[in-house]
Description:
Chain A is mainly beta. Helix content of chain A is about 10%, strand content about 55%.
Amino acid sequence: MDATRPLDALNAARNKKVIVETKSQKQFIGTLKAFDIHINIVLDDAEEREAGEVKRKLGTVFMRGDTIILISPA
Amino acid sequence: MDATRPLDALNAARNKKVIVETKSQKQFIGTLKAFDIHINIVLDDAEEREAGEVKRKLGTVFMRGDTIILISPA
Amino acid sequence: MDATRPLDALNAARNKKVIVETKSQKQFIGTLKAFDIHINIVLDDAEEREAGEVKRKLGTVFMRGDTIILISPA
Amino acid sequence: MDATRPLDALNAARNKKVIVETKSQKQFIGTLKAFDIHINIVLDDAEEREAGEVKRKLGTVFMRGDTIILISPA
Amino acid sequence: MDATRPLDALNAARNKKVIVETKSQKQFIGTLKAFDIHINIVLDDAEEREAGEVKRKLGTVFMRGDTIILISPA
Amino acid sequence: MDATRPLDALNAARNKKVIVETKSQKQFIGTLKAFDIHINIVLDDAEEREAGEVKRKLGTVFMRGDTIILISPA
Amino acid sequence: MDATRPLDALNAARNKKVIVETKSQKQFIGTLKAFDIHINIVLDDAEEREAGEVKRKLGTVFMRGDTIILISPA
């Protein structure tokens, strides 16, 4: 991710695998397909993980931005 | 769900079965009938589930967007 | 409730009996008399219920939208 | 309270006794003197109650809207 | 406090002693010197109280509106 | 701090030592260098304190406004 | 960091090492690459720390502003 503005970093991560962590203390991993200024995002091939283990497979998932703490390349 | 913007993904899921998870740690499954930019949604034939079991049937349900963590095809 | 936009579903429920659940884990049942874009609502003949039992009768009640998780026909 | 829009119901309750419940699980009873679109309100002759008993008398009180869950005629 | 709009009541309380209660369950008493539409306020000669006892003296204090539950003449 | 509007009080405190308390129940002391309408602030020579003792020295610190409960001259 | 407005302080910290603390009580250290008015930020070479120890390495990370309590030069 290269960034002069934060959303540039998300744009650089598009179609790449990212880790997403939420305020509800959950971790999701998937391919970042879309985002908007509210940081609503769409992941493809998403999995929820717990302590490094796959907890469940979700496929495509829309996540509401205000639940997200961080997004980082996997 | 195909998406260049996150709401495109919700649009692709319209009239399809989705899982909705809330900040109150609840899981709902139903047919996505409507959504708006606040991620307020309407589900048809909605059920609340707990640990994979149907907890109750709700029929049609309006859910306020700011309570939603994620929406994913069922 | 029929809906292309979420508020259409609330409109279809006007003057009908609805269940309202709040972030404070409470359940109210009453006739939906009014709502606005913030999902502020007014119920008539409202009751608070707990585990299916009437806990108290409230008559008319104004509920602030940001406290609401879901609204569903009773 | 008669309402086509939720704030109409508050208007109909002006100068009448109302119960106000807050997110902090408190209950106040007083005469509704004023409100605005944020649901900031002013009560006159307000009392805080707990389990039906008067806990303290507050006289006039300004309450910030985002703390309020519901307002109902007493 | 006389009020047709809620902020009128705050205006009537300006330069008078008020009790302020916060979402963090704290109580402050002081002279209301200023407020704005966000209910940010400034108190002079402010004290924090606990169970009716002075816990500490704060002098002048700026309080952010979104932390405030209620403001009432002392 | 002299104030007709709340932000005037912050302006009067600029370059002076202030106590800042946060929703996370922390207390910071430092010189108020900057603030904006969101009550985002910058402190210089900032320290975090616990029960009156210095817990750590932070130097310059940017604090996001929505985490702040109160700001008071030290 | 030199500041007449709070964001000036963040601008002065760009490309420098900063500590970021979140509402979820976590601490991240990394190089501040980007920020916006919502205090969304991007860190490079980011690490999460716990009690002064590196808990995990994250590389580049986008953090949503509303999760952030403070940002301070490391």
